């Protein structure tokens, strides 16, 4: 029996879309997007993000879906010469290995963020972070510095617990574990998100925050900002990670790739925008600056919650939401590496999971946890290890992988890509998409890549 015949498929289009939505939401939408909005002019950034989703997001989702479903194999062999495609050079598989390396590196710090969130949840529950009365900026920063920067053992333990939760889900398989967990986690995430939005937009003075968030200051819209936003879309949609290639490899040949890509892009954008409604009205309601950068949700929002009735409860819900979003993403990024190990090395799934999670924990998570204390003097390219992992994966590896994917579709697969995308390969949409991906998308990615290096 061939590998293709053995491969499972998603039980329904809805579960696939929910899984992809979970994979692409994560910290990109709930942590990174809000602080970037705050740093870059509010509504101007939001407007450009929505435009960028159509300019680069959805076309690239289709690129990775086409590559993934074509052969229905792992993200390395997806670029290979299996089945009818005997003429494809083996060197194209380098793109698959780059995606794997990027996934390994991003998980090196991503899981630590999950450990941070678990630390906040437990600290809120046991009273170590007491926000039952209003706290000051100094108190919030003091807790962050003490519990995140200067408690490496504690964060390592919480990170390990977060990894263990991932292990339990992954051990049950792509359908029994990932699909089944996402069926419960994504609705729960939406419930938490909507609840937090309703709570915060009804605060006194919230309208000022909503105006800042939605009303674009057109003077802030520049070509440089748009390039930054385009780069954030890659992070937000997990493009170049191999995630969408891997997930779509379990997709039935009958599924409509165009429809699922549009829904994926719309869902990701909606959740990111909703996350802003959860944050900015409350910041303005209590006079807290929105431009505090990556620590926005960890240092600024606890101050907000401390001023709210039942603030501790809402803070736990908020960080619980972040944890769910992180979990739905982390299990799918892990799966990219696990599937490759299973199919390339014929490794048993249990062994592949253990090897993937343990090696990332030892070589990635522990160095990232120690990057601001024990290993603070180790600064590759004058960055902490944590920041270096973020920079190398998000600004180098994923963009180069995505660039290669677009070129692979446009110049190698050619008509096969159009045939995989649609049952009507000569339709106007398919033709426009193909030419756009072949000639325009690579130029956009090169511009993003170069701007990141400057």
Automatic annotation (TrEMBL):
Segments crossing the lipid bilayer: 14-31, 43-63, 94-112, 155-175, 187-206, 226-251, 263-288, 308-341, 353-371, 391-413, 433-453
Gene Ontology CC entries for this record: membrane
Record-level Gene Ontology MF annotations: symporter activity
InterPro entries: Na/ntran_symport (IPR000175), SNS_sf (IPR037272), YocR/YhdH-like (IPR047218)
Keywords: Membrane, Symport, Transmembrane, Transmembrane helix, Transport
Membrane topology summary: Multi-pass membrane protein
Protein name (database record): Transporter
Sequence similarity: Belongs to the sodium:neurotransmitter symporter (SNF) (TC 2.A.22) family.
Subcellular location as annotated: Membrane
Superkingdom field: Bacteria
């Amino acid at each position: 029996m061939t590998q293709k015949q053995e491969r499972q498929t998603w039980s329904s289009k809805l579960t696939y879309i929910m899984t992809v939505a979970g994979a692409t939401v994560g910290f990109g939408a709930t942590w990174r997007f809000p602080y970037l909005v705050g740093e870059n002019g509010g509504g101007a950034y939001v407007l450009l993000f929505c435009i960028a989703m159509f300019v680069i997001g959805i076309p690239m989702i289709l690129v990775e879906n086409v590559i993934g479903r074509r052969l229905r194999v792992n993200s390395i062999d997806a670029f290979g010469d299996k089945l009818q495609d005997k003429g494809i050079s083996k060197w194209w598989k380098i793109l698959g290995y780059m995606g794997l390396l990027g996934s390994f590196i991003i998980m090196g710090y991503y899981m630590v963020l999950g450990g941070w969130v678990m630390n906040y949840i437990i600290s809120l529950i046991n009273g170590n972070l007491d926000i039952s009365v209003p706290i000051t900026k100094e108190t919030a920063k003091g807790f962050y510095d003490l519990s995140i920067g200067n408690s490496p053992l504690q964060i390592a333990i919480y990170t390990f617990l977060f990894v263990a939760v991932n292990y339990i889900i992954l051990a049950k398989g792509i359908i029994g574990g990932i699909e089944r967990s996402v069926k419960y986690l994504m609705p729960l995430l939406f419930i938490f998100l909507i609840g937090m939005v309703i709570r915060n937009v009804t605060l006194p003075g919230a309208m000022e925050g909503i105006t800042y968030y939605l009303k674009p200051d057109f003077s802030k819209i520049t070509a440089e900002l748009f390039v930054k936003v385009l780069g954030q879309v890659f992070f937000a949609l997990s493009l170049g990670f191999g995630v969408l290639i891997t997930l779509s490899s379990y997709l039935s040949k009958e599924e409509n790739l165009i429809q699922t890509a549009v829904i994926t892009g719309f869902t990701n954008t909606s959740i990111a925008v909703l996350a802003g409604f959860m944050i900015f009205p409350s910041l303005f309601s209590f006079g807290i600056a929105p431009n505090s950068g990556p620590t926005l949700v960890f240092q600024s929002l606890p101050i907000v919650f401390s001023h709210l009735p039942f603030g501790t409860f809402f803070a736990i819900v908020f960080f619980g939401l972040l944890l769910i979003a992180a979990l739905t993403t982390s299990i799918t990024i892990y799966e990219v590496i696990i599937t490759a190990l299973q199919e390339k090395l014929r490794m048993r799934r249990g062994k592949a999971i253990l090897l993937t999670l343990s090696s990332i924990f030892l070589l990635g998570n522990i160095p990232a946890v120690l990057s601001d204390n024990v290993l603070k003097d180790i600064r590759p390219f004058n960055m902490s290890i944590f920041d270096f992992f973020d920079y190398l994966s998000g600004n180098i590896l994923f963009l180069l992988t995505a660039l290669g994917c677009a070129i692979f579709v446009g110049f190698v697969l050619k008509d096969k890509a159009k045939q995989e995308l649609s049952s009507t390969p000569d339709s106007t949409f398919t033709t426009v998409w193909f030419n756009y991906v072949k000639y325009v998308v690579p130029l956009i990615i090169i511009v993003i890549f170069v701007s990141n290096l400057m």
